[in-house]
Amino acid sequence: MADGILYLVATPIGNLEDITLRALRVLKEVDLVAAEDTRHSRKLFNHFGITTSLTSFFQHNEAAKGERIIELLRQGKSVALISDAGTPAISDPGYLLVCRCHEERLPVTAIPGPCAVVVALSLSGLPVARFAFDGFLPAKSGARREVFAGVANEYQRTVAYYEAPHRLLAALHDLRDVLGAERQIAIVRELTKIHEELFRGSADEALEHFGQSRVRGEIVLMIAPAMVKPPQETVREALRRLGADPDLSRRDIVKQVARQFGLSGSEVYKESLDMDDEMEGING
Ligand code: SAM
């Protein structure tokens, strides 16, 4: 008998419409759905008329429950893993089970969908050609300050964290102390929900903004690379400026501009092609 498949199914992070047709089909067709909180997932199931059996699968039963799921897969049963919201295994249970399936050479596949950190980064308007995700910020100030100290010299990547609303202000105080009042950040709250909010600005401005009232909802905090300020010149202006230097090839120019704006080389190269009449005469 063929082994069953483990499906890692992404579910909405707020708005219930953010679920794929494939996710709905798989959740209806599998033999069992392992969910972080079965009561929470039952609401999703009721909304979409899904009647598949649910079993709980959370941090503290992950190892034991995982072995039971491995047995079911061996018996040819298919299982879907979901978390309360978003993509399984991303700051949620799943890693151990996925690892065990790979060890046992059992088939695992992903049904992609929402993931709060990815949605946050794409919405932030911060440079995201390169980024890092560092999970939840530590709850204690000392540990948090150490984490922030680690990004003081991060000149290349935007770094993102999940944070609890009741700790946001304390985290922002630590961030300002360690990284300076001017460090550019972005904060998203309640993505895909009615009260969705995007804040962009300096650490100081964030304290001013979020210090006004009690912070609620789900939050992703992102720190821009050091020294990244709103660009003084546009990409085209930078290409034009460097294009005037006869010693620079197009390759050198694209590289420099990509670094300056935190963009990928291919994006800048395409922009330089679009303004080819102005860049005439530059070595290819
Ligand atoms: N696996 C999930 C994912 O793919 O996004 C993340 C689970 S983690 C336990 C929950 C954290 O994700 C929240 O505390 C918050 O920081 C972030 N998050 C989840 N949903 C969000 C939303 N709608 N808006 C902003 N942040 C969200």
Describe the protein.
The chain folds into three domains: about 5-115, Cobalt-precorrin-4 Transmethylase, domain 1 (3-Layer(aba) Sandwich), CATH 3.40.1010; about 115-225, Tetrapyrrole methylase, C-terminal domain (Methyltransferase, Cobalt-precorrin-4 Transmethylase, Domain 2), CATH 3.30.950; about 235-275, no CATH class. It has helices at about 20-30, 40-50, 60-75, 95-105, 115-125, 140-150, 170-180, 205-210, 235-245, 250-260, 265-275; strands at about 5-10, 30-35, 55, 80, 110, 130-135, 160-165, 185-190, 195-200, 220-225. The chain has eleven helices and ten strands. About 40% of the residues lie in helices and about 15% in strands. Helix 3 (about 60-75) packs parallel to helix 4, helix 9 runs antiparallel to helix 10 (about 250-260) and helix 10 (about 250-260) crosses helix 11. The protein has a five-stranded parallel β-sheet, with helices on both faces. It is α/β, with parallel strands linked by helices. It binds S-adenosylmethionine. S-adenosylmethionine binds near residues 90, 115 and 163. S-adenosylmethionine (SAM) binds near residues 115 and 191.
Keywords:
3 domains, five-stranded parallel β-sheet, Cobalt-precorrin-4 Transmethylase, domain 1, 284 residues, globular, 11 helices, five-stranded mixed β-sheet, alpha/beta, binds S-adenosylmethionine, Methyltransferase, Cobalt-precorrin-4 Transmethylase, Domain 2
What is the fold's blueprint, element by element?
Elements: E1 6-9, H1 21-29, E2 32-35, H2 38-48, E3 54-56, H3 62-74, E4 79-82, H4 95-103, E5 108-111, H5 116-124, E6 131-136, H6 141-149, E7 158-163, H7 168-179, E8 184-189, E9 197-202, H8 203-210, E10 219-223, H9 235-243, H10 250-261, H11 265-274
Helix pairs in contact: 3-4, 6-7, 7-8, 9-10, 10-11
S-adenosylmethionine (SAM) binds at residues 13-14, 83, 85-87, 90-92, 115-116, 162-163, 188, 190-193, 218-220.
